[in-house]
Structures are given as C-alpha cells and as structure tokens.
Amino acid sequence: MKKVMISTMAAAILLAGNMAEPAMKAEAGVLDNTISYNGITFKDVPAAHWAASAVASAVQDGYFKGYTDGTFKPSAPVTKAEMATILGRLTEQPVVTTGNSASFTDIPDWATEGVQAAVEKGFIDPSKYAGKLDAKTALTRGEMAIWLAQGLAAMNPDYKVALSDVTNTVIPAKEYFTGKMPETQKNSVAVAMGTGLMSVGSDKNFGTDRTTTRAEVATLIARYTAVAKKQPDDFKGLQELRAVGLTGTNLKVIAPSYVKWPKERLPESYDYSKYTDDFSKVRNKELVTVADYATVKVKNWIVVSPYAKGDQRSIYYPVFLDEGDTALHGSFYSFAEFDMKIKGSSMNQQQAGILINSHSIAPLKSPSSKAYKEYSLPHIYDITKSRGVFTVNNPHYWGIGLLHFDNSLNTQVQLKAKDGTVYYVSPN
User: Fold this and answer.
1) Are residues 260 and 224 in contact, defined by beta-carbon separation less than 8 angstroms?
2) Residue 170 CA from chain centroid, whole number
3) DSSP conformational letter for 270
4) In the prediction, which pLDDT does 103 show?
5) pLDDT for the residue numbered 41
6) Which parts of the chain register pLDDT below 50?
7) E strands of 261-390, at which residues?
8) What is the Cα–Cα distance from 190 to 167, expressed in whole angstroms?
9) Which pLDDT score is estimated for 250?
10) Cα angle 43-79-128, degrees, rounded to a multiple of 5
C-alpha cells in the first residue's frame, strides 16, 4: 500500500472526521506527517457494506481515517468545512480563479486553506452566500449536488452548458413530481443524476434536505473523478435530461429512427414548411383537437424502451415501468404530460381520450405501474370520480400510450398546434 503525505492540520480534519481539533490530532495518528493505511479495516464497514470499496480507497488516498475505536462511522454526517477541504485537495481539478475570493466570516482556522482551494477550483461560488458558509453545519445532498455540478462546469465548459440545458427538464425524483425540490437545486440535481454521480433513495426521493454521510462522500469522490474525465454526451441519462429540457421529449435519444414525415408522402397542397420534428415547436402550445371538450397542451413527452438493459436503459425507466414490463409488437412505452382546460360544465375520461387521435400521445388513462405510484406522479384517477368525470376544471396528469415500430400498425405521431405548426414523425 502507498503512503499519503498530508499536513498535520489537514489530517486533523479530513481523517478524524469531527470538529474537536485537539482530539482530532490525537486520534489521527500522525507521525512525521506520514499516514500509513497498511491492512486497515473497520468493524462498522464489513466487506458487504455498499461503500466498502470506496471507503478503502478514500482512506488509502488520504481523504479519511477511522477512529481509535476501530470504526469509520460511515453514517456520520460531513460538514461543509470538511467537504470543502476534501474537494479543495482534488489534484486533477484545475484552479479557475485565484485570489482571496473565499470571503466567508465563519470558517474555522483549520479549514481556511481548504475552503479557499475549493472556491478557486470552482466547487463553491461565494456570491451565492451572504458572507457565511455555515461551515460547521452538515452538508445536505442538495448542496452537495450544487458543489459537484459547479466543479464539473469548472473542469469542462460543456458541463456548464448542460447545467443550462436541463433548466426545464423532468427530473426522475419524487421531490420533482411533488413540487418539493428547491428551484435553486434542480439543475444541479439533474446533472448529478444524469451523470450517475448521485441517485434517488429507496423511497424514490433524491433527498435534497438530507445530510451527506462519510460513506457517501467516499463514494462521491471516486465517482466525481471518473465523471470529470468524461464528456456530458458520454452519459445517456444526461443526454435525455438535456433533450427534455430543451425540446420537451427524449425521443431522439431513445428512438432516433423516428424522423420528420417525408415531404413526398404529403399532398402537394400541404405547406411542408409548417411541418417539423422539433417537439419544442408544439410543446406547451394549444393543440388542435378532434373534439371541443377542452383545450390541450403537452408539457413533456417521455419515451421508454421496456427492452433496454443496464446503461442502455432510459433514466426514466424506473419512474414509469416496473421490472419486466413488456409491450406488444415490440413497441416502446410513451408517456405524455397533459395540461387541459375544460370548456363545458364537465368532461369525462372517455371524452378526454378522444381529444387527440394518437396511439402514442394518449390522454385516456395514466400508467398503472407500481413505480409510477411510488414516484407520486399526477394520475388521472386522482382527479376523476364515478364514470370518469373530472373533478377539476384544469386537469393535469400523465397519460400512457405506445410508440409503434411495426408498419402494420399506426406508427405516425402527429400533433398540430393552433398556430399551424405540425409536429409529424414516423420511423424512417
């Protein structure tokens, strides 16, 4: 095993993991500024622990050390000062700004240098704080996502573009669908999830307000260094999130064979200049409907292949589908988010279902998967009563349809906006 050289002061905070500086120095076991991790084990991090490998690497690389009682305390929270110091020591992270820019008034002496380094390397933006970092408070997962996303943007300007692209995306986390995710954290959470840096928990929440633990930090450091070496386009999930943010759909990522309807298949009398395969041209616009029961807008359209496995799966798969779900005729599932305004005194589910004559963008019913319910997406049954009559004048929910590839079926997807724009795609 290699030896890692760090200063006594840095070791005190990074390795012991608590705020009592004198005690930390005593526990860290620092001799001549050299820390040895030969054969070290922790009784509270067994081999089967989900972060065992990451903890071992973080200890070996000098970011953490265990306690004198033989524990690592993997579930203990990490403070902002501790995390800033760790991030400031990432040697492959470039310095993007120099100078005394970390103008915080509440940084402990031992963390001053580390916080300054984290600022200079782009992880922390002092302008987002009112002179205080709240350095001794535990770092939340939401703020962790911000720091890591900002670090990626400092490392690679393409990540800065990605952060902007996901502004209007659909984030596959329960807090997003319940409206509890802070606006200031959405973009960073999207990038963190899209790159695989962070994910939702078993309750389907990202946990923006939950504290970050020592085990999570050990894992995140390893993931961050790997992600920072890649381009945003290397991550399919981030591609989807960016596409949905910019256009309202992930179709071109999941089903790139769906393209604009060929001009030669239209009668010459049709104005082909009005036709498009850019979903953003009809997103959130009032659509032409078959019946006059309500006005209809489609906010987002998510396509998911039930057959893809592993890294090839849509980042939205766990939101809409249960493991093992399949569709007839090799079709993909299609989920559209609808905003409607009922014109008459009432409208029922069947009437809503015929508003748009489409097998793919279908407002008749919502998904019935267990996953959909766990993520708390708005369901049509939540806003209807007996005989499917809507109980609200402005229904908002997700519908389910199928995207066909079998030419014996209706493979075309067509929407027409009231301004004359026609979204028309089919498999090439």
Assistant:
1) no
2) 9
3) S
4) 82
5) 81
6) 1-38
7) 275-276, 294-304, 332-342
8) 9
9) 98
10) 155
Nearest-Å Rg of the Cα atoms of the chain is 26
Burial of 124 (0-12, 13-18, 19+ CB in 10 A): buried
Tokens standing for 388? 């499917």
Tell me, what's the pLDDT at 405?
96
Spatial separation of the C-alpha atoms in residues 247 and 269, rounded to whole Å: 29
Largest Cα–Cα separation, the chain: 85
Left if phi > 0, otherwise alpha if psi is -120 to 50, otherwise beta: which for 354? alpha
Determine the pLDDT at residue 39. Answer: 62
Question: Half-sphere exposure (CA, 13 Å, Cβ side) for 87?
Answer: 36
Per-residue buried b or exposed e for 379-412, using 16+ beta carbons within 10 Å of the residue's own CB: bbeebbeeebebeeeebebbbbbbbbbeeeeebb
> What span, in angstroms and rounded, lies between the C-alpha atoms of 270 and 287?
18
Closest to 301 in 3D by CA, of 409, 176, 403, 189: 403
What contacts 24+ positions apart, CB below 8 Å, involve 49-57? Answer: 49/74, 49/215, 50/215, 51/215, 51/216, 51/218, 51/219, 54/215, 54/218, 54/219, 54/221, 54/222, 55/214, 55/215, 55/218, 57/218, 57/222
Contact 27, 60 (CB under 8 A): no
Predicted confidence (pLDDT) per residue in 162-205, tens digit: 999 999 999 999 999 999 999 999 999 999 999 999 999 999 99
| pLDDT number for residue 215 | 94
Helices H / strands E in the chain, number of each:
15, 9
pLDDT at residue 99 in the model = 66
Q: What is the DSSP code (8-state) at residue 53?
A: H
| 366, amino acid identity | S
**H or E segment to which residue 113 belongs:** helix 112-120
pLDDT of residue 63: 83
CA neighbor of 214 nearest in space, from 13, 10, 33: 13
316-325: per-residue pLDDT in tens?
Answer: 999 999 999 9
pLDDT for 19 equals: 32
The pLDDT of residue 211 is 95
CB 191 within 8 A of CB 163: yes
Backbone angles phi, psi at 296, to 5 degrees: -135, 135
Question: Tokens in use for 153?
Answer: 């943007």
**Which residues fall within 8 angstroms of residue 424, CB to CB, at 6 or more apart?**
260, 261, 275, 276, 277, 412, 413, 414
Instruction: Name the β-bridge partners of 77.
Output: 213
CB 232 within 8 A of CB 162: yes
